[in-house]
Amino acid sequence: MVNDLLEQCDMYARDNNALCVERIIISIGERSAIEPSLLLSAFETFKQESRFCAKAELEIQIQKVKLQCYDCGAEFEVEALDYASCKQCGTQNVKIIAGSDMLLLSIEMNVEDNVENM
Predict the structure, then answer these.
(1) Where are the domains of the chain?
(2) How many helices (H) and strands (E) does the chain have?
(3) Interhelix angle for 36-46 vs 2-15, to 10°?
(4) Given this model, what pLDDT does residue 114 score?
(5) 1-111 architecture in CATH?
(6) Over the stretch 18-35, which tens digit does the pLDDT of each residue have?
(7) CB-based burial, 76-113: b 16+ in 10 Å, e otherwise
(8) Is Thylakoid one of the keywords UniProt gives this record (predicted)?
(9) SS (H, E, C) 68-84
Protein backbone atom coordinates (compact mmCIF):
# COMPACT_ATOMS: atom_id res chain seq x y z
CA MET A 1 0.00 0.00 0.00
CA VAL A 2 2.73 2.52 0.96
CA ASN A 3 4.87 1.38 -1.97
CA ASP A 4 1.92 1.86 -4.32
CA LEU A 5 1.37 5.38 -2.97
CA LEU A 6 5.04 6.28 -3.39
CA GLU A 7 5.17 4.79 -6.89
CA GLN A 8 2.11 6.81 -7.89
CA CYS A 9 3.63 10.02 -6.50
CA ASP A 10 6.95 9.29 -8.25
CA MET A 11 5.04 8.81 -11.52
CA TYR A 12 3.24 12.16 -11.15
CA ALA A 13 6.53 13.88 -10.27
CA ARG A 14 8.30 12.36 -13.28
CA ASP A 15 5.40 13.21 -15.62
CA ASN A 16 5.49 16.83 -14.42
CA ASN A 17 9.28 17.23 -14.56
CA ALA A 18 9.41 17.83 -10.81
CA LEU A 19 12.61 18.04 -8.85
CA CYS A 20 10.94 16.45 -5.83
CA VAL A 21 7.67 15.87 -4.02
CA GLU A 22 7.38 18.04 -0.93
CA ARG A 23 4.01 17.06 0.49
CA ILE A 24 1.47 14.30 -0.03
CA ILE A 25 -2.07 14.60 1.30
CA ILE A 26 -4.22 11.49 1.60
CA SER A 27 -7.61 10.64 3.02
CA ILE A 28 -8.13 7.48 5.06
CA GLY A 29 -11.65 6.27 5.72
CA GLU A 30 -12.70 5.33 9.24
CA ARG A 31 -13.67 1.88 7.90
CA SER A 32 -10.58 1.39 5.74
CA ALA A 33 -8.81 -0.88 8.26
CA ILE A 34 -5.74 1.38 7.97
CA GLU A 35 -4.10 2.56 11.18
CA PRO A 36 -2.85 6.11 10.50
CA SER A 37 0.14 5.89 12.86
CA LEU A 38 1.34 2.63 11.27
CA LEU A 39 0.88 4.05 7.78
CA LEU A 40 2.89 7.14 8.71
CA SER A 41 5.66 5.00 10.20
CA ALA A 42 5.81 2.83 7.07
CA PHE A 43 5.80 5.94 4.87
CA GLU A 44 8.79 7.41 6.76
CA THR A 45 10.69 4.14 6.25
CA PHE A 46 9.84 3.46 2.61
CA LYS A 47 10.07 7.03 1.30
CA GLN A 48 13.87 6.79 1.55
CA GLU A 49 13.78 4.40 -1.43
CA SER A 50 11.73 6.81 -3.54
CA ARG A 51 13.38 8.88 -6.26
CA PHE A 52 11.19 11.94 -5.73
CA CYS A 53 9.58 11.48 -2.29
CA ALA A 54 12.60 11.00 0.00
CA LYS A 55 11.97 14.33 1.76
CA ALA A 56 8.19 14.45 1.40
CA GLU A 57 5.83 15.02 4.29
CA LEU A 58 2.66 12.94 4.55
CA GLU A 59 -0.56 14.57 5.73
CA ILE A 60 -3.40 12.24 6.66
CA GLN A 61 -7.03 13.36 6.75
CA ILE A 62 -9.62 11.05 8.27
CA GLN A 63 -12.78 10.53 6.19
CA LYS A 64 -15.95 9.83 8.15
CA VAL A 65 -18.16 6.99 6.99
CA LYS A 66 -21.01 8.11 4.76
CA LEU A 67 -24.02 5.95 3.92
CA GLN A 68 -26.68 6.12 1.24
CA CYS A 69 -30.13 4.64 1.60
CA TYR A 70 -31.31 2.45 -1.28
CA ASP A 71 -34.96 3.16 -0.40
CA CYS A 72 -35.20 6.95 0.05
CA GLY A 73 -31.84 8.03 -1.41
CA ALA A 74 -30.74 9.95 1.69
CA GLU A 75 -26.98 10.39 2.22
CA PHE A 76 -25.60 10.93 5.70
CA GLU A 77 -22.49 10.57 7.85
CA VAL A 78 -22.47 7.83 10.44
CA GLU A 79 -22.19 8.63 14.11
CA ALA A 80 -20.46 6.10 16.39
CA LEU A 81 -20.92 2.60 14.95
CA ASP A 82 -24.50 2.99 13.68
CA TYR A 83 -24.14 1.49 10.20
CA ALA A 84 -27.41 -0.43 10.21
CA SER A 85 -30.18 2.00 9.40
CA CYS A 86 -31.11 5.13 7.49
CA LYS A 87 -31.43 8.32 9.53
CA GLN A 88 -34.19 9.53 7.20
CA CYS A 89 -36.57 6.59 6.80
CA GLY A 90 -35.26 3.98 9.25
CA THR A 91 -34.80 1.17 6.71
CA GLN A 92 -31.76 -1.07 6.95
CA ASN A 93 -31.26 -1.01 3.18
CA VAL A 94 -28.11 1.15 3.17
CA LYS A 95 -24.65 1.06 1.59
CA ILE A 96 -21.31 2.69 2.44
CA ILE A 97 -20.43 5.34 -0.15
CA ALA A 98 -17.45 6.98 1.58
CA GLY A 99 -15.03 6.26 4.39
CA SER A 100 -13.88 2.76 3.54
CA ASP A 101 -10.83 3.49 1.39
CA MET A 102 -7.64 5.50 1.05
CA LEU A 103 -7.49 8.31 -1.50
CA LEU A 104 -4.64 10.44 -2.79
CA LEU A 105 -5.95 13.99 -2.51
CA SER A 106 -3.01 16.22 -3.38
CA ILE A 107 0.68 16.25 -4.23
CA GLU A 108 2.84 19.33 -3.79
CA MET A 109 5.91 19.23 -6.01
CA ASN A 110 8.93 21.43 -6.51
CA VAL A 111 9.15 22.12 -10.22
CA GLU A 112 12.26 24.21 -10.86
CA ASP A 113 11.88 25.99 -7.51
CA ASN A 114 8.15 26.60 -7.93
CA VAL A 115 5.61 24.63 -5.89
CA GLU A 116 2.71 23.24 -7.88
CA ASN A 117 -0.40 21.46 -6.63
CA MET A 118 -1.95 18.56 -8.43
Answers:
(1) 1-111
(2) 2, 7
(3) 50
(4) 47
(5) 2-Layer Sandwich (3.30)
(6) 999 999 999 999 999 999
(7) eebeeeeeeebbeeeeeebeeebbeebeeeebbbbeee
(8) no
(9) EECCCCCEEECCCCCCC
Give me the helices (H) in 2-56, please: 2-15, 36-46
Task: Report the residue count for the chain.
Answer: 118
Which amino acid is present at 86?
C
Which helix (H) or strand (E) segment is 59 a member of? strand 57-63
Measured CA distances, 88 to 24, 85, 113 (Å): 37, 9, 51
pTM over 0.90: no
Q: Which residues contact 111 (CB under 8 A, 6 or more apart)?
A: 16, 17, 18, 19
* Strand, helix or coil for residue 47: helix
